[in-house]
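User: Fold this one for me? It's DNA sulfur modification protein DndE.
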Amino acid sequence: MLPNRMSLKRTTEEQLKTLKGKTGITPNVSARLAFFRSVESEFRYNGQEAKLDGSLVLDKFTWLGETSDITELVLKMYYPELDSKHHQQAWAAHVEDGIAAIRNHKDLVSFSSKI
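Assistant: Here's what I get for DNA sulfur modification protein DndE.
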């Protein structure tokens, strides 16, 4: 359902990289956490396309890891009418929404206490 190669908005990617510098958590893992945090907060993608202009273009399995099946099922459940391209947009929007809540942690201890 999601394309094999995916990217995020440049600003979201920069926030993931900054978080990695502070906590050591890689962007793909923090993107997974951000996605599910966004879903839990009841954020919903409104269909507005964003320019996914980040330079970190990774394959789907690297971005999603073992959460790939559940991530795709959640996207199908919430957005059954969307195609593959728009599911990627929805995923990116959820990561952007979720990273806002965790991007300001200064170290791994403060980060882990909030998840």
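One thing worth pointing out: The longest strand covers residues 5-6.
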